């Protein structure tokens, strides 16, 4: 199967096999006139790279991809490091997906070297359809963990609700987001997160889209919702400030590439369309 989902490890490493190498949350790339390339598995010796546990990741457009964490952060022979979050501006959606998949899997394996139940050594389950690991001592199996989180654009008339987390760079605002709790539906999570963080009620919750976000293991599930009632009252623990913003008065927003930005772009486009249709109707 030609797609990032493929998980049947090839018996032999192809000559054209690519290698996704990470250091912390950065990826090793070569940048040339706005486009990027990554090393081949066969380049490792030539580039003098040291990586532990090179792992097969999947197949894309006839090329196999492998991934690993580097042992040190030495840039070499024209290669440099780029924050994985900043990749989307440079590359196709498919490549973006395989890079995110690799980062998620590599860190998942790194975090599960020993069994959480008995402390035994874990190893990859042979022939598994996913990069699952099992304990050699007790057989406990761990599948890659994916943590669902909601993210929601709340709209009130021609304004969007944006909030500032204490973690954001200065001046940056974004839409509300939070992790789904055990036993909770996505819709309940949207209502709870908005209520907890800014004290308002929402309704007309609609699915917008989703995005894997492997920092470390989230799947962001995006919604739009409409303001129902209440006044903004900021939960000072997670949120530093929040407010309603029109498309013309937006504060600093996340850079392109994240689904939070896609939600804000949707709001701006939708607002423009509504203004245009109002103007058309009044002419
Ligand atoms: Zn065990």
Comma- or semicolon-separated keywords:
283 residues; alpha+beta; Nucleoside Triphosphate Pyrophosphohydrolase; 3 domains; 6-stranded mixed beta sheet; 15 strands; 20% helix; 35% strand
Oligomer status: single chain
CATH architecture of the largest domain: Alpha-Beta Complex
Q: Report the sheet with the most strands, covering strand number, pairing sense and barrel closure.
A: 6 strands, mixed
Shape, principal axes of CA atoms: globular
Fraction in beta strands: 35-45%
What is the CATH T-level topology of the largest domain? Answer: Nucleoside Triphosphate Pyrophosphohydrolase
Number of helices: 3
State the fourth-level CATH superfamily of the largest domain: Nucleoside Triphosphate Pyrophosphohydrolase
Q: List how many beta strands DSSP finds.
A: 15
Cα(first) to Cα(last) distance is 55 Å
Helicity, as a percent range: 10-25%
Rg from Cα:
22 Å
The overall average pLDDT, rounded, is: 90
Broad CATH class of the largest domain: Alpha Beta
List low-confidence stretches. none
Counted up, domains total: 3
Ligand roster:
zinc ion
How is this structure best described in words?
- It is a single chain.
- The model has no long low-confidence stretch (mean pLDDT 90).
- A hairpin with a 4-residue loop joins β13 (201-213) and β14.
- The protein has helices at residues 93-111, 186-198, 259-282, and strands at 18-23, 26-32, 35-37, 51-60, 63-70, 80-83, 122-124, 133-135, 141-142, 147-156, 159-165, 176-179, 201-213, 218-229, 239-246.
- The protein contains 3 helices and 15 strands.
- It is of the alpha+beta class and 283 residues long.
- The strands form 3 sheets. Strands 1, 2, 3, 4, 5 and 6 form a 6-stranded mixed β-sheet that branches. Strands 10, 11, 12, 13, 14 and 15 form a 6-stranded mixed β-sheet that branches.
- It is globular, with a radius of gyration of 22 Å.
- The chain has 3 domains: 1-111, Nucleoside Triphosphate Pyrophosphohydrolase, CATH 3.90.79; 112-145; 147-282, Nucleoside Triphosphate Pyrophosphohydrolase.
- The N and C termini lie far apart (55 Å).
- The structure holds zinc ion.
- Zinc ion binds at residues 115, 117-118, 120, 135, 137-138, 140.
